[in-house]
Amino acid sequence: MSRLLPLSRAARLAGTTRVTLQLKIRSGELPSFDGMVSADDLLRLYPDIRLEEDGGFEQVMQIKERAFGKRVRERLLPSQEILSQRLYEQSAELADLRAHLQRYHAMMEAVRDRIREREAQPDMAALGEFLDAQLAEILGATAPNTLDVMDDMLRVMSAHVTLRPSGHDFFVEGADTLLESALKAGLAVNYGCSNGNCGLCKARVVSGEVRKVRPHDYVLSEAEKDLGYTLLCCHAAVSDLVVEALETGSAGDIPQQQIVARVKALQPLGDDMRLLHLQTPRNNRLRFLAGQSVTLTAGGASTQLSVASCPCDDRNLHFHVARDAQDDFARQVYDVLGPGDAVTVLGPWGEFVLRADSPRPILFVASEAGFAPIKGLVEHAMSLDRAERLHLYWHACGPSGHYLANLCRSWAEALDNFRYAAITAGDAQAVVDRLAQDHADLAAFDIYLAGPEAFVDGAVKALALQGFPAAQLVATAT
Ligand code: FES
Q1: How many domains does the chain divide into?
Q2: What CATH number has the domain bearing residue 332?
Q3: Atom 3 (ligand 1): residue with closest C-alpha?
Q4: CA neighbor of 64 nearest in space, from 49, 74, 51, 53
Q5: pTM of the predicted model as reported, rounded to 2 decimal places
Q6: Which atom of ligand 1 is closest in space to residue 194's alpha carbon?
Q7: pLDDT digit string (tens) for 262-279?
């Protein structure tokens, strides 16, 4: 059998998503062996795989990069040290294979000589011909398997990490630490300071090799080092890893934090919406789950707002602030605050988070600025790459209500399993009617609903009247 590949790696090589491959496994198109797929089967399904033709995958990655606020190049290139270590590992593997090959070659030559000496004996001539034909075929196959070449390249550029006991997996790319990579993959691993002081990100490396890439003050005991413990926030992967790590089960596991952040930028999102971009100190970042909110205080005015950015970039926090002359905090954002000003962040709050292990497809329903927490959840769901279908409905009545429509359209263009619908009229009942009309199997979905209180209450009631299971509905008023 050809090389077996973990599903995430196979998806990268084929330039598709993990969900697409899962669907093919389920339909029987793609055989799987303990969660792995063979390179031959992958090539059979994707015969056009070429080294230079991974556009679909790159497009999806660029969308994620936009969400994570990092440049693609930074993601792609590991540090020189890690790169040379990975190249060394592969060279050692190659040298080992070459030595094996030479020994096999010598053995085949010896067998061929023995047969030649006995060609007069019955069957020996036929055996000799068979052997010659086999050797000619093997020696004639000079073109390397494209997938093997791509997989080797991928292994130099990134390392694959499997977490225990959950079985979740992710890739470590560029100069990212294990912690940053896990967060970018939408995984809620346990951590605190992000910079080597608290020890909360301690995890045990079961197999594979890690390397320290950031200094840390937290000291691991000799016993912990002997057992393979490492700090996820200060180490990167040299090789593929299996790691035992604690993952956050729910919003309740995350402690309340108070941080003084600074305004990094203020940017208009249409006429009546503004993006407030805060940056936390490097050594005091906000730990939260996508979809949660925080209390912001500036100039004596406070408000509670949903974080509209990804927890994977825990230094850069985005908020959507609607223009409102009656709201003291909105007045601060529109009339007072400027780059460098201090804003206190307290939180996180709320249970409006993704049920990451639910097997159901997802409907996201946002009304007006309820898009902010929904954006966080959509990006989280995209990072996890587990839901078969992600459909977003954004209800907004004003002319500039869909203030990030281009972003939503770019998601729909890049992802086969993502659909976007802008709804410009009607009330909560009308939106729920539209959901039912579009999805005869509505009860097969999980629904995440966010928007003004009246809209959310109306939609929850309308869904209940439709007989939609309450346990599959997560709603928040913004
Ligand atoms: S998160 Fe604090 S030491 Fe890693």
Answers
A1: 4
A2: 2.40.30.10
A3: 196
A4: 74
A5: 0.78
A6: 1
A7: 999 999 998 899 999 999
